[in-house]
Automatic annotation (TrEMBL):
Its main location: membrane. This is Energy-coupling factor ABC transporter ATP-binding protein. It is a peripheral membrane protein. It comes from the Bacteria. SMART domains: AAA. InterPro entries: AAA+_ATPase (IPR003593), ABC_transporter-like_ATP-bd (IPR003439), ABC_transporter-like_CS (IPR017871), ABC_transpr_CbiO/EcfA_su (IPR015856), ECF_ABC_transporter_ATP-bd (IPR050095), P-loop_NTPase (IPR027417). Belongs to the ABC transporter superfamily. CDD domains: ABC_cobalt_CbiO_domain1. The keyword ATP-binding applies. One of its GO terms (molecular function) is ATP hydrolysis activity. GO terms for cellular component: ATP-binding cassette (ABC) transporter complex. Residues 1-199 form the ABC transporter domain.
Length: 199
């Protein structure tokens, strides 16, 4: 990343695209505080990310890794979706309702008591996305979210992203899926050799 001055607003769907090795995943990890820039700074709602804990960042920014297995750790699908809400102190009745609704939407209900790592690659991705969406972050960052999803489930994901932005929250997708980007993105950022261009 070199000489970047970029604002990501909590509105619309921002797509970040570029060739392999262009820095897309590095960029997403800088946005979430997983990586710290060697020069310059990253701010979240006016606050330096370096002044916030990962837990504080996680309350505002949700991140789904390119490899969903890295963030699945509970014993069942149902626990995976509800864990973060319990951790953030959501009311128990709200946790139960949201867990049920999100499992239904992402067609995971029949796997509710299954061990997450026994799911298919596409099912794991849907689960990782569902677990982060359940937390209602102000900004949702999805790294290659359509990998392993069939066209029907890509549409489910895209439609849910539109529901998110309708509630005044933002979405960033890191993706090579140009058809999906063309359909859903409201802003396009291209990354090449550590530099951004828009449009």
């Amino acid at each position: 990343m070199n000489d970047i001055n970029l604002s990501i607003l909590k509105e619309g769907i921002t797509a970040v695209t570029g060739s392999n090795g262009s820095g897309k995943t590095t960029f997403s990890k800088l946005l979430t505080g997983i990586l710290t820039p060697t020069k310059g700074c990253v701010k979240l709602n006016g606050q330096l990310l370096t002044s916030l804990s990962l837990a504080q960042i996680g309350r505002q920014v949700g991140y789904v890794f390119q490899n969903p297995e890295k963030q699945l750790f509970c014993e069942t699908v149902e626990e995976e979706i509800s864990f973060g809400m319990h951790n953030l102190g959501f009311p128990l009745d709200q946790v139960a309702l949201k867990t049920r609704d999100i499992m239904e939407y992402f067609e995971l209900t029949r796997y509710s008591q299954s061990f997450p790592h026994n799911l298919s690659a596409g099912e794991k991705r849907r689960l990782a996305i569902a677990a982060v969406i359940a937390l209602e972050p102000d900004l949702l960052i999805l790294d290659e979210p359509t990998t392993g999803l069939d066209p029907y489930r890509k549409k489910l994901l895209g439609d849910y992203m539109e529901r998110i932005i309708a509630s005044n929250r933002g979405v960033v997708i890191i993706s090579h899926d140009h058809k999906f980007i063309d359909r859903y993105a409201t802003r396009l950022i291209r990354l090449r050799e550590g530099q951004f261009t828009e449009g």
